[in-house]
Amino acid sequence: MKKTLLTAILASVLILFAACGGGSDEGEGLLEDGKLVVGVTAGPHEEVLEKVKELAEEEDLTIEIVSFSDYVMPNVSLSEGELDINSFQTEPFFDHMNEERGLDLVKVADTITFPMGIYSEKVTDIADLEDGASIGLPSDPTNSGRALLLFEQAGLITLEEGLGVNATVNDIAENEHNYEFIELDSAQIPRQLGEVDIAAINSNFAMEAGLVPGEDSIFIEQDSTFVNLIAVRKENEDDPAVQQFIDIYQSDEVEQFVEETYGGSIIPGW
Questions:
Q1: Are 201 and 137 in contact (CB under 8 A)?
Q2: Tens of pLDDT along 194-227?
Q3: What is the annotated signal peptide range for this record (predicted)?
């Protein structure tokens, strides 16, 4: 009698466990809820993802897009499980966030490249910049270093050697024209452009503000290696849904969409 009762209890537990998904492959993975939740920043990243979403529907893959206005929350939200994937950042920024915040995120693919540009409402040529001019640049570490490399590329300053994207305003070796460097929130720089003489602006934020990088910038990044990427939590890097998403994103259809829509202001990076 006791053995029969124990057997019945164990059977009930196993049925309940199976119903909840434990020990079964069915329903597991990122598509357990029937969709992929993908985080992007507003602007071109979101526009490209809308095209990806459209193509995914043809493959019976449902994508929910979550748009952010900053560079921090898409990684935090991914780490906390609110997103399945994000697509918005360069690898140097991604590495910095992973280390600084202790996130367990991994890169799984490349996406598009946004050349950073220098913009101004006061001058139309870098050569017209006066001594002591104010220069705006992003305040987050990797984009700040990227902007400083851009200023060096434009002949405005010289940086200490070997620092690359890790350079800060304190690493400016030569500033013979005594330019004043003002660090600002990346997303806000287009709105504050009139308050400085020139500023470095990430192309996604520039385009969101109605600027055309290839036409409106007075200097643009040459041979950019800052390709954006797709990131997931490490536990999901081999999920079949992730590979399906990558295949759609890196398809000929998306490449054509990027080339036709942005006319060289944004470049397919895969």
A1: no
A2: 999 999 999 888 988 999 898 899 999 976 678 9
A3: 1-18
Q: Could you tell me the domains of the chain?
A: 33-114+226-268 (3.40.190.10), 117-220 (3.40.190.10)
Give the integer Cα–Cα distance in Å for 129 and 126.
6
Longest dimension (CA), the chain: 96
- Structure tokens belonging to residue 41: 């920043």
Name 105's bridge partners.
233
Report how far residue 129's alpha carbon sits from residue 166's, in angstroms, rounded to the nearest whole number: 26
pLDDT tens for 129-186 read: 999 999 999 998 889 999 999 999 999 999 999 998 889 999 999 999 999 999 999 9
Whole-model pTM: value is 0.70
Token code pair at residue 94: 């991604």
The pair of structure tokens assigned to 237 is 């890097």
If 0-12 CB within 10 Å is exposed, 13-18 middle and 19+ buried, where does residue 25 land? exposed
Compute the distance between CA of residue 20 and CA of residue 79 in angstroms, rounded to an integer: 24
**How far is it, in rounded angstroms, from Cα 258 to Cα 199?**
26
